[in-house]
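[recover] target loaded
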């Protein structure tokens, strides 16, 4: 059963100033390791994409969560993936020039 859908779009340059503060506010420790492996321009794009995806997830979920409690890591095929018990989550992150967008569809797992 679909619980909700969420979508969020952000300007990538929004994360140019205070990028380190955004990183600490948005990313988990394992996401920060991935973030640190990129060059600075790609770091900003990564950060914007994760922000948009987490905002989309917060909109789609039927439980209260904080952005920092959500961890999005690539799966074996490189797709963004997140695991929250009791839910199946479909997630997409895209970037185009000045913008990053996140889209989430959340389903409740049947027991």
């Amino acid at each position: 059963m679909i619980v909700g859908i969420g979508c969020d779009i952000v300007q990538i340059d929004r994360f140019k100033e205070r990028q380190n503060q955004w990183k600490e506010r948005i990313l988990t420790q394992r996401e920060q390791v991935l973030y640190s492996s990129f060059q600075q321009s790609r770091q900003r794009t990564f950060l914007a994409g994760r922000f948009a995806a987490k905002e989309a997830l917060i909109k789609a979920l039927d439980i209260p969560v904080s952005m920092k409690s959500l961890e999005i890591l690539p799966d074996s095929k490189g797709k963004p993936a997140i695991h929250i018990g009791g839910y199946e989550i479909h997630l997409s992150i895209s970037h185009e020039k000045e913008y990053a967008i996140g889209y989430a569809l959340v389903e409740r797992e049947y027991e």
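[recover] notes: The chain has a mean pLDDT of 94.
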